[in-house]
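user: can you give me the structure for this one chain? tokens are fine.
assistant: on it. calling the predictor now.
[tool input]
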Amino acid sequence: MAEILHAHPFERPEYVREPEAADPGWTSPRQRGLAARFAGIPAVRQATLLVLLGLAWQGYAMLLDNSLMLPTAAQALAAFAHGIADGVLIERGWTSVKVLLGGYVVGFVAALILTGLAVATRIGSDLLTLLTAMFNPLPAIALLPLALLWFGLGTGSLTFVLVHAVLWPIALNTHAGFLGVSPTLRMAGASFGLRGAGLVFRLLIPAAFPAILTGLKVGWAFAWRTLIAAELVFGVSAGSGGLGWYIFENRNQLETANVFAGLLAVIVIGLAVEGVVFRSVERLTVRRWGMQQQWRAE
């Protein structure tokens, strides 16, 4: 065999590849202009869209010329700045956030208990499936009249409906996240000696954390909407009244600009929680662990 190879050595034809000319339309990031660099930043693009929407609002309101029906964007921003300066919006916003945090924490703990039972036992899984099928489609605000009968005028009634709004999305997403952990990963953890609580906290929760975080976001959004709607209907149950009650009062007084100021406060708080709290948790956990990639268009 060696003699055959020696007599007929393998000849590989030479291949020379000429360098291709660079695409004349392509430029490196350093060669791009300042405007193109800013256009590549998501926050700048979103801010630009927000300004365009504000200009469209301003133009349509000026064309309508009826501040009672639709104040201009400038009037709404002026009312918002005045509410912040005199502390009314800050006080009302803090009142709503305090009530929300209480109901959110209770709902989160209850969701963890239900999910733990569902993961540990078959009866717990059947119970979670049955309860979510029954109560998840039920609007939380529909339970507020019963909550007022059971808990009276106070934060207890609002906490009850907030727990209902938070409990089911967090429990569903957490349970789905645990079920989505691959058996291979579970066996790998067991081979490293992870058992019981160690397996749950060091493997299952990190592996299921993207789904858990999604449930926390959805639960927060449901709770925030439920709270504002509840305060709009029964605002006195929030004590001194939150943002929903502020919107309701100004609507009765035909102060439409202040109504929009209250709506802007609701939006700003929602954006702050989403952009600061949840985005920071996402960056420090799932993105840092390589479990989530941020898609960017070139």
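assistant: here you go. The chain is about 70% helix and 0% strand. Residues 71-284 form a domain with the MetI-like fold fold (CATH 1.10.3720.10).
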